[in-house]
Write a structure and sequence with these properties.
Elements lengths: L2 H30 L16 E6 L5 E7 L5 E7 L13 H6 L3 E5 L15 H16 L4 E11 L1 H12 L6 E4 L5 H11 L4 H16 L3 H4 L1 H4 L7 E6 L7 H9 L6 E6 L9 H16 L6
Parallel strand pairs: 3-4, 3-5, 5-6, 6-7, 7-8
Antiparallel strand pairs: 1-2, 2-4
Amino acid sequence: MSGYTAIAWLSGLLLSCALAVLLFNRLIRVSLAAPRIYESGVPDGLPWREVSIPTVRGKQLFGWFIPAGKRAPALAILHGWGGNAEMMLPLAKRLHAAGYALLFFDARCHGRSDGDTFASLPRFAEDLEHAVDWLGVQSEVDEGRVGVIGHSVGAGAALLLASRRHDIAAVVSLAAFAHPAGMMRRWLKFKRIPFWPLGAYILFYVQRVIGHRFDDIAPSHTIRSVECPVLLAHGTEDETVPVSEAREIYANRKDGRVRLLPMQGSHDEYTEMERHIGTMIGFLDNAMLRPRKG
């Protein structure tokens, strides 16, 4: 083989390897993309109005705002991966009856909100932050009493946001996972992808794409920087995120402002939610009904 032929062969091999990596990266992103499910209903029986909330990168978020009189405490409520605002509506009537203004909204790449290059836990937190800011300038809302409720990835986003800014009045976390790497490993196992070397590369690539280390955004880590009261509610029959992960987050709390509420139910269906909604409202009342000082 001549020197020229060898160089051409090596160049072709390197090009083929580069293309294979690019194709694999594309496959990872497609496989992990959230399904988009559009709302088919509205908050019947409540005084809702449709709103559009600006977020980063010039995108707009779809939402429903449900006021509760003048200067009411308010909650921004965020769904999980592949969810939408409508899926969180079972919470609406009881929370509204308890005196809370409510904002149900879709994260980017979900429901009726704008798309983006990808969705991630940090981007959920970005959208939640803009939802909180939007609530704070509404005439019907007491800007000093705004809390957040999140489900699954939305719960992780709620804890991440509350760890970064200390004007959040309260957090209700529904079915949060303790660490993104644990969720990814369960996904790899479900897809029958061996951790070495493919799984390890997928975890590396995802962290590079989202621009954050999993350790830095893990709820088991961010819980230690949250200054407001937190309620960790979790279904005891959850097979997507085992209830042990809620206990792991709880074990890493820094003080007594964090409560753990196991309840019967799966990841998406809480068979005892109706019975425990009073506990949630009591927690929120203690944290939010008195105006914050300072």
